[in-house]
Amino acid sequence: RKEVEQDPGPFNVPEGATVAFNCTYSNSASQSFFWYRQDCRKEPKLLMSVYSSGNEDGRFTAQLNRASQYISLLIRDSKLSDSATYLCVVFNAGNNRKLIWGLGTSLAVNP
Amino acid sequence: NAGVTQTPKFQVLKTGQSMTLQCAQDMNHNSMYWYRQDPGMGLRLIYYSASEGTTDKGEVPNGYNVSRLNKREFSLRLESAAPSQTSVYFCASSEADTTLAGGQFFGPGTRLTVL
């Protein structure tokens, strides 16, 4: 099993739709979680940190489910500009420090 | 405030040539990182520097060396380039490596081709 797994997609949705991505992780001791977005041929950019209580930033909501070891990203009212690849990142601090990047989920929002 | 800058943006090398990729950040971050990104492989950490004066190996350090020149600058050197090092290289920085709270901020990348 991969340490971080994402459905590669692509997810094709119309403008205004709600879309959700999940990311599963294998290490139950993982401590920090993030969602990044990456546009084609550009650098990754931090979208949100994911907190245990869940967090929201405008149209974006991130959730963490430790029991089932997954994080989710919900995008409401999709815009054309949301088209990108969404990367899930899991961080284990301490002596066995490790930062693991998922391969990403591709989203295309269509007019 | 430029964030993280990288030079060069593109580079073509022949097998066996050497080069240094430069990275600088102006956010007063303590930690800096070098990644490579290849199709189907995702981002892989080459080296990182948790704080000025320290460097540590990441997941794929072979064939690379790094220098944390000061708090702002972190360079990556390929001593003898190989075709397997053809990739997109990203530099990143963060406030602290212990928690990565606040996330990492990336430079625009260097596209390297080794013939």
How many H/I helical runs of chain A?
0
Q: Which term fits the overall shape of chain A? A: globular
Tell me the greatest interface: A-B, 19 and 20 residues
The profile of the biggest β sheet of chain A is:
6 strands, mixed
**Helix fraction bin of chain A:** under 10%
Using DSSP, what is the number of strands of chain A?
A: 11
Q: State the total count of DSSP E strands of chain B.
A: 11
Instruction: Kindly estimate the percentage of residues of chain A that lie in beta strands according to DSSP.
Output: over 45%
Task: Give structural notes.
The complex is a heterodimer of chains A (111) and B (115). With 111 residues, chain A is mostly beta strands. Chain A has strands at 4-6, 11-14, 19-25, 32-38, 44-50, 55-57, 60-65, 70-75, 84-92, 98-101, 105-110. In chain A, strands 2, 4, 5, 9, 10 and 11 form a 6-stranded mixed sheet that branches. Chain B has 115 residues and is mainly β. Chain B has no helices and 11 strands. Chain B has strands at 4-7, 10-13, 19-25, 31-38, 42-49, 56-57, 64-68, 74-78, 87-94, 105-106, 110-114. The radius of gyration of chain B is 13 Å and the shape is globular. Classes of the chains: A mainly beta (111), B mainly beta (115). At the A-B interface, strand 4 and strand 5 of A face strand 5 and strand 10 of B.
List the helices and strands and how they pair.
The complex is a heterodimer of chains A (111) and B (115).
Chain A: E1 4-6, E2 11-14, E3 19-25, E4 32-38, E5 44-50, E6 55-57, E7 60-65, E8 70-75, E9 84-92, E10 98-101, E11 105-110
Chain B: E1 4-7, E2 10-13, E3 19-25, E4 31-38, E5 42-49, E6 56-57, E7 64-68, E8 74-78, E9 87-94, E10 105-106, E11 110-114
Parallel strand pairs in B: 2-11
Antiparallel strand pairs in B: 1-3, 3-8, 4-5, 4-9, 5-6, 7-8, 9-10, 9-11
